[in-house]
Amino acid sequence: MTGNFTGSFTQQEPIPEAGIEAALNVLRHGRLHRYNTAPGEIAETALLEEEFARFTGAKYCLAVASGGYALGAALRAIGIGPGDHVLTNAFTLAPVPGAIAALGASPVFVETTEDLTIDMADLQAKLAGARALLLSHMRGHICDMDRLMAICDAAGVPVIEDCAHTMGAAWRGTPSGRHGIAGCYSTQTYKHMNSGEGGLIVSDDPDLMARAVILSGSYMLYGRHRAAPPAEAFDRVRLVTPNVSGRMDNLRAAILRPQLADLAAQCARWNALYATMEAALTGTDGLRLIPRPAEESHVASSFQFLLPGWPPQRVQTFLARAAQRGVELKWFGHPEPTGFTSRHDSWRYAGAQHLPQTDRILAGLIDMRLPLTFTPADVQLIAAIIREELAATAAGANGPHETALAAD
């Protein structure tokens, strides 16, 4: 038997020194609010928006307080309101249906495939009466975006992409977030750039982005944005769009700009860890890996696998055994929300929905983070522990770990 893992699944790398120095500069001059600038100064937030627009190839970009706020602002900017039906993935995290429900709209969940992407047949069946699709690229898995956009375009249903887990990823070379009418990103600590909290919206639609800027709390200072639509777009919306303040501040923008400059290299490091884990778990009995299509350029900061047909008690035994050896795994089949992990039937504000395919898949879905503080040797050890504890659990072995579990 291999040893135990003693590292942390939640420890991120430190903020780059350039980000720390930029943050200290903002703290020293005290102009944290994005519209509080000295004569001739360009706000850090405005510069971040300009740079992120360039990174994604979008015409416009807006930096906001969180990824969840970005989703809500984008939905509201396309006119979503009370009573509207908005489609979204059944496999996602709570802020996605939460952004829909916060507007008084109704989340309608679409089934999930075994590749952890949205089910196209179920999507097509549920398009009638839908006002929009809030597409979650959950855990970095991108569906066939060409097919999805053809389906939604034919039905006249706009698509907003939740790219919280796909910053830096692409489908057939088109960056994630650039297929739909808008793309929304998160810079929360566990995402691909870390400002604690934060979000970004990109779009080529001038009216949508003018509304989003006003919604974010620009007052009449939108002229200070550098990645915003022209003045005539604001003239159309500025007096009829409410202020729902959710701006990003200059401190967080200063922390993020050096991370954006390093993002491509960081993505390559995540993918190297993912490839190491994938190779180490290939061929493991009872475990199904998630195939990655050739058209997808992923950014794999987390790793998922399935335990098809495993009963809940056996899954929980495996999770407990792995945890005792230092391997922290999340289970999307747990009947109760746990930490960040929850499933559609716990979002009762959305109403009960019949999703048998998703329920079957989530019953065996295991998830783990791959922070960049891991080394390839760490990943090899974690994979070895997973293999050993899967085999022991499947065999019903009553070794020291089973004894400890029974004592608990």
Structural class call reads alpha/beta
Largest sheet report: 7 strands, mixed
CATH topology-level fold name of the largest domain: Aspartate Aminotransferase, domain 2
- Give me the Rg, rounded: 22 Å
- Please state the second-level CATH architecture of the largest domain: 3-Layer(aba) Sandwich
N-end to C-end Cα span = 23 Å
The arrangement of helices and strands along the chain is: HHEHEHEHEHEEEEEHHHEEEHEHEHH
Share in helix: 25-40%
Q: Strand order across the biggest sheet?
A: 1-9-8-5-4-2-3
Q: Please tell me what the overall shape is.
A: globular
What would the average pLDDT be, to the nearest integer?
95
| Number of alpha- plus pi-helical segments | 13
- Approximately how much beta-strand content do the residues carry? 5-15%
Low-confidence stretches: 397-408
Instruction: Write out the CATH superfamily name of the largest domain.
Output: Type I PLP-dependent aspartate aminotransferase-like (Major domain)
Q: According to CATH, what is the class of the largest domain?
A: Alpha Beta
Query: What is the total domain count?
Result: 2
Task: Walk me through what this model shows.
By secondary structure, the protein is of the alpha/beta class. The protein folds into two domains: 17-257, Type I PLP-dependent aspartate aminotransferase-like (Major domain) (Aspartate Aminotransferase, domain 2, 3-Layer(aba) Sandwich); 263-407, Aspartate Aminotransferase, domain 1 (Alpha-Beta Complex), CATH 3.90.1150. The chain contains 13 helices and 14 strands. The chain has a seven-stranded mixed beta sheet with strand order 1-9-8-5-4-2-3, with helices on both faces. Helix 3 crosses helix 7 (206-215). The longest helix has 32 residues, at 250-281. The chain is globular. It starts with 16 loop residues before the first helix and ends with a helix.
